Amino acid sequence: MKSLIVGNGAREHAIAERMAEGSELYAFISKKNPGIAKICKEFEIGDLLDFDKIKKFADKVEPDYVFVGPEGPLAKGIVDALEYEVVGPNENLAKLESDKGFCKEFMKRHLGRGYPQFEVCTSYTEAKNAIDALDKVVVKPGGLTAGKGVKVMGQQLESKEDAKEYAREVLEKKIGGIEKVVIEEKINGEEFTLQAFTDGVRLAPMPLVQDHKHAYENDAGPMTGGMGSYSDSDHLLPFLNATDHKEALKIMEDTIDAIRKTGRYRGVLYGGFMLTKDGPKLLEYNVRFGDPEAMNVLSLLKTDFSDVCISILDGNLKNVEFEQKATVCKYLVPKGYPTHPEPLAEVFVDKKRIEEMGARLYYASVNERNGKVYTSTSRSFGIVGIAKTLDEAERITERAISTVNSDKLVHRSDIGGKELIEKRIKHMRELRDEF
Ligand code: GLY
Questions:
Q1: How far, in Å, is the centroid of ligand 1 from the Cα of 289?
Q2: Is any ligand 1 atom within 6 A of the Cβ of residue 97?
Q3: Which of 26, 96, 225, 328 is at 20 to 30 A from 194, Cα to Cα?
């Protein structure tokens, strides 16, 4: 069997590794990710939105299936443009991620429950009124911003005036590419990610993951694409129980049921939830694997990935199995990331040594030239420790990170650590009056 991956971050490296186990892998990448380049039969470098070029490469390879990692090509309609079997939603269904207004209206029409109050606004007056009508708000650009466009009152926004100014800026500058801003009620709780494979009828859920979007320790600083994430050996999270999980999954099942009336969603559906005192609330959908969350779940995958992809395309998806282990993923990023990242630096990492320590290494935004690996201004490597307990997985990740010999890279040491996890548990207990 032949397969083609489109994309070249750490998420795609994790996907590519799994694809290469059960198929002959080809890759269309925008930068030479050394990890992907090493495991594929052949790669082509180009713009991930240049569908003509991708199609030409696919014509040469004739893959049995194509897997698209990032949201950009899905939002632009790669599934419709390539005349191959692509695991991912078409352009219209990709709007669940690329147009937050579309997603929110979908929730209102088809789910009717399980999400925070919101208004989708296309003018400043609408946004201003929506902000005035709510107590505390979150301001979200309507389009794609790689996780960096969302601003929250009490964090990046100090007051309602700040929220209004930011909403005006989003509309005027078309941040996210469309003139739309979502004003959402700020709700209190703990965020978590539920990802599921789906063939458009059935869902095969993956272990739950908690991502950490703030740049600095203790959830401080600006938003990033994600600094690291963890998952637990029971596939739940330390602050969340099986009933919460069931409720979140039901919301996603109802979503796929609603979509079935008019179309077919094939691929990975990512639910971004907030666990509140009243149970899980859906904040957003992504139409692909999460980054870094893909690294957690794919490190545990037992079922052959290519078989899963073919069953998604054939419409006969069955259960997908994962090891009962905990994972802790941490990103190494250039000093100063994300606001003032230090420029290119050569860096040496020993993948084999890291693997011998019980961890996995995924190359992110690095480039290989003449056999040397250079960082860029974005996230550089994802390192995932895997063990029976979270504690042990976290220690493995830290030990593996200590082998990366660079004073140009930093990471969040608190992710997956006892202290931060205890804080999450305490937060949920307080909210649920469980003391
Ligand atoms: N981890 C957040 C995302 O993938 O969008």
A1: 8
A2: no
A3: 26
Mutate to test the pocket of ligand 1, among 269, 270, 329 (most ligand atoms within 8 A of CB): 270
Query: CA-CA distance, 309 to 413, in Å (whole number)?
Result: 35
Nearest to 382 by CA among 340, 338, 351: 351
C-beta of 293 in contact with ligand 1 (< 6 A): yes
Q: Does the C-beta of 290 come closer than 6 Å to ligand 1?
A: yes
- Domain-located, residue 81: yes
What is the pTM assigned to this prediction? 0.96
Query: Residue 101: inside a domain, yes or no?
Result: no
CA of 144 to the centre of ligand 1 (A): 11
Find the DSSP H helices in 271-323. 293-298, 305-314
The domain in which residue 208 lies consists of 187-435
| Ligand 1 neighbourhood includes 211 CB (under 6 angstroms) | yes
DSSP string, 100-162: HHHHHHHIIIII-SSS--EEEESSHHHHHHHHHHSSSEEEEESS--TT-S-EEBTTTB-SHHH
Task: Quick: pLDDT tens for 203-254.
Answer: 999 999 999 999 999 999 988 889 999 999 999 999 999 999 999 999 999 9
What span, in angstroms and rounded, lies between the C-alpha atoms of 358 and 339? 33
215 and 167 in one domain? no
pLDDT in tens, 255-298: 999 999 989 999 999 999 999 999 999 999 999 999 999 999 99
Residue 344: pLDDT band (50, 70, 90) is: confident
Task: Work out the number of other CB atoms within 10 angstroms of the CB of residue 204.
Answer: 20
Query: Which residue CA neighbors atom 3 of ligand 1 most closely?
Result: 290
Predicted local confidence at residue 16, as pLDDT: 98
Task: Identify the residue whose C-alpha is closest to ligand 1 atom 5.
Answer: 290
C-beta of 190 in contact with ligand 1 (< 6 A): no
CATH number of the domain to which 30 belongs:
3.40.50.20
61 C-alpha to ligand 1 centroid (Å): 30
The continuous run of DSSP H or E covering 37 comes out as: helix 34-39
Residue 411 CB-density burial (10 A; 0-12 exposed, 13-18 middle, 19+ buried): buried
Please indicate, yes or no, whether residues 139 and 279 belong to a single structural domain of this protein: no
Atom of ligand 1 nearest to the CA of 288: 4
- What spacing in Å lies between the alpha carbon of 74 and ligand 1's midpoint? 15
Packed helices 305-314 and 10-22: angle between N→C axes, nearest 10 degrees: 90
Nearest atom in ligand 1 to the alpha carbon of residue 290 is 4
Residue 226 CB less than 6 A away from ligand 1: yes
